[in-house]
Structure formats: structure tokens, C-alpha cells
Specification:
This protein has helices at 3-7, 27-36, 48-54, 83-91, 108-119, and strands at 23-25, 41-44, 56-57, 67-68, 72-73, 78-79, 100-103, 125-128, 155-156. The longest helix is centred in the last third of the chain and has 12 residues, at 108-119. The chain has a single domain, classed as Rhodanese-like domain (Oxidized Rhodanese, domain 1, 3-Layer(aba) Sandwich). It is 27% helix and 16% strand. The protein is globular. It contains five helices and nine strands, in the order αβαβαββββαβαββ. The strands form three sheets. A five-stranded parallel sheet has the order 1-8-7-2-4. It has a two-stranded antiparallel sheet with strand order 3-9. By secondary structure, the protein is α/β, with parallel strands linked by helices.
Length: 158
């Protein structure tokens, strides 16, 4: 980990800097930043059904709760037209320069959300690689290969 990232409570990105958002981070790195940086926030962009039936990150050990904001609306999976405005309001001006870590099932919707929020002025939007459940394994199951659950990070299910 670079001293610069560690000192500022900022994530160490994995891979090249993409240019249209702050970059990709591993789930473990996201968890480190959430615990160490009081301004860091996790935004879970999955659907209400996913939150209810699959679970959500448990940030209580960091003294936080995830922000739950659908990127796509269930059941149609159409883009949420109010996403950027609603999330901007929920995060507030004070978080414009704070680390905002985006999470979805496998890392695709969260990347799109990080790009969108960077476009409206949030300067440190990161995508969590592998998302909450990660990629499909050889048996076509999620949650074992990569992502938040596979990294054995805290989560709860209702």
C-alpha cells in the first residue's frame, strides 16, 4: 500500500487509474478505508430484493451503515432516473471529496454508479471489485470466488 493512500485514509486502487472515476478497490481495502476514515461511505447500489434476500454489508464495527440506493429499479431493472440527485442529497456537500465506495452484486452496476457520481462532482468515487457476491464459480454459484462475502467481510441478512 502506498504511504500516500494510507496516510490520507484513501483507498489503494487495483489496476490502472480509469480516468472517469477514482478506480477499483478490493473488498478488503474498502473495509480498511471504511474503518479508518470517518468520512468514507459505502453505497450499495443493488436492488431492494437483493438487499432483502441476499444480505447487506454490516458496517457496525466501523460505526457506520451502508447507504442503500438502487442504480436500477426492481423488477424492471430500468435505470433509476433520480439516482444522482437522490444520492447527492443523501451524501451532502461535505462528502464531495470523501471516499465513496460503490458496491453491487459483481462490480458492474457499482462501476457505472461511480462514473455517474464522479460526473456530478464527487471526486473520490471507487468501485469495489467483485461486488457483494462476486463472479460465478465453476458450479455457477456466487459468493465463493471473489467479492465482499468471499473475502469473509461482515454482512447481515434480514
Amino acid at each position: 500500500m502506498s504511504d500516500k493512500a494510507q496516510e490520507g485514509g484513501m483507498p489503494e486502487i487495483t489496476g490502472p487509474h480509469p480516468g472517469n472515476y477514482a478506480g477499483d478497490v478490493t473488498p478488503a481495502e474498502a473495509w480498511r478505508v471504511l474503518r479508518e476514515n470517518p468520512d468514507a461511505v459505502l453505497v450499495d447500489v443493488r436492488t431492494r430484493a437483493e438487499w432483502s434476500f441476499v444480505g447487506v454489508p454490516d458496517l457496525s464495527a466501523a460505526g457506520k451503515e451502508p447507504v442503500l440506493m438502487e442504480w436500477q429499479l426492481f423488477p424492471t431493472m430500468s435505470l433509476n432516473p433520480g439516482f444522482a440527485a437522490d444520492l447527492s442529497s443523501a451524501l451532502g456537500q461535505a462528502r464531495k471529496n470523501a471516499p465513496v465506495l460503490f458496491l453491487c452484486r459483481s462490480g458492474a452496476r457499482s462501476r457505472a454508479a461511480a462514473i455517474a457520481m464522479t460526473g456530478v462532482g464527487f471526486s473520490r468515487c471507487f468501485n469495489i471489485l467483485g461486488g457483494f457476491e462476486g463472479d460465478l464459480d465453476g458450479m455457477k454459484h456466487r459468493g465463493r470466488q471473489n467479492g465482499w462475502k468471499a473475502a469473509d467481510l461482515p454482512w447481515v441478512q434480514s
